[in-house]
Amino acid sequence: MKASPLFITVCLLLTGCTSGEYVVEKTDNPPYKPNIEFQGFEDLANPGFQHLIDKYKLDTIFHGETDEFRRILLLRHWIKSVIPINDHGDPYPGDGYVEGILDAALLGQGFHCGHFMKVQNGIMNAYGYVTRTLGAGPGVQGGPDGHHGINEIWLNDYNKWFLSDAKYDHHFEKNGVPLSALEIRDEYLKNKAADIIKVKGPDRIPTDIDPETGTSKERSAQTYTWIEFHTHNDMFTAWPDFQTMLTMYEDDYFDNHTWFWGGNPHWAYNQPEFMRLVKDRDVIKWTPNTIASKVVTEGNVATIKLISDTPNLATYQMKEMPGGDWKDVEASLEIALKNKRNEFVFRTLNLAGVTGPEHTIIINKLPKKSSKNQLTDIYIANNRVAKEAVLRSIPEAYINKARETLHIAYQHTSHGTQVARGIFGLPDYKEGDDHLFGITNNAPEAGKLDFHDYALQDYAVPGVDASDLSRNETAFIQATRNYLDDDANDDINVVMWSWCNIAGHQPAKNYLPGMDSLISEYGEGGTKIGNGEGLRPHPVTFIYMTGHANLENNTGEGNPKNQADLIVENCQKNKRYCLDYYSIDTHDMNDNYWEDAGDDGNSATYGGNFYLDWQIAHESGKAWYENRKSPGGEVVFGAHNSQHITANRKAYAMWWILARIAGWDGK
Fold first, then answer.
1. Less Cβ crowding at N or C end of the chain, within 10 Å?
2. How confident is the model at residue 27 (pLDDT cuts 50, 70, 90)?
3. CB 656 within 8 A of CB 381
């Protein structure tokens, strides 16, 4: 069967897909964002670049410096030291050529910001640093509304763009990290740049008021309220035939304000053919020199395909760890896997000898699985299943079938909210999720998953608490019968009950036999399924659940781990679906097991909260999402959680089970 585009995308994001005896380990590589907007890069084979280096003896500027960022700052400082400022010199000599500008500047001629921008672009590209030209302005009607020409330069060591102003020899930083133009804009619009600093020169000296111009940090940052990125990035080699196309980020601020320049709206408003609006910020944040990979293993051979948008790419390079040497490789290669752990590091090399961020691929040999463990992968929604990558790999047809045909009744108290709030928040996560994972709560709607939260407690025997499995270990049995025997619930075909605290309970005596009884009555071929008096038309799939983890008290008779093992083994044996709360609570995002963990990702052995740490290190809307109290409702954590990850993972696990019920084979 032909792989779907969704599956291919997941493989790329994960760095690989596997079959056979090896698995690709998840690694924290620099993120890859493709270039779909910018065009016309400088050709580093152009002899003009080497001519700049030789004529102006630019190599003498470094004094042996090898740090890339420091070299860039030294080059920028040299430009500032050579070119005087003159904002009112039309006509300027040099005809816009970098060499002409520098020659005139060395004779005392001053130039404006656009000339500094051109020179910085030429010199940085001469050394192989990917550089783009851009204009910006505060755009305020009645002032300030000027215009400024600057550059962004790609920093391989930081894996990001940073704004470099050669005219004033400064840039902006936050917590020691150089900022891009859009990041400066964010900070200005947030609180007038209160949380960032402006630094000057190669020594990065903090400078609130520029001693040369008297301009404050706040006013400098305001310059980046409006930013136009030149779509074509070949100003040096294409001049004077350089194409003026302007790429701009269209957000709410752009749509609700007007950019003024010289007392009037920017000229491009009246010439829309020059203005290219993009809504996706990643389009502007594309990552030159950075690698993505797709890995497929067959037997002991890994096939690796490397992907990168690297201007002037000379070759890819690879070294085998530990201790290997760099060697040139093709974009597609096959490698024989010889060890239990195989680690390879890749990078790009451009024509100027500049290397990009390193990209690591680790391929581990799998231990032999017992048939019991293989069943776990088929019926148990545990930590290995509770991952976004697994969710995105499910064929869309089965997600659609689950959404359109399943009708779910769920009963729980506080801990059980982690499933409900996770699946209620998922539709707001990424583009298309509002349809793919659309859901209702006690209000069925065509095309959305029919979910009934807190559905069964009111059907309990009078005077008996059946609000979850823990309150009364057998109350769920009759409450479920009463619910399913009600004609109003004839369409319900999935039922799930949640534990509160499973510790000290007797699932072998109460829960498991109770579920067996319900399945024999209401499951496929059950005694209460059919047409006629006292029968219901639709069989029911019952989803089992393990209990949540208890901080530093998971092992021993009657405690969560032992109870989970008992329930999971029963489900494996009888081929029943189980949402394994315990497994998800005690495994971090890299599948490390923390046996002392609680229900919030907190673990003394780990030394903190592994879920909260992961959430802080990853971007909302990209790697995780906010859970909700109801579909489209209030943003909340799952109960007993201080982070969104736990409920996210339980939502992924729930959808995996639903897709399996809908007919997916789990492969």
1. N
2. confident
3. yes
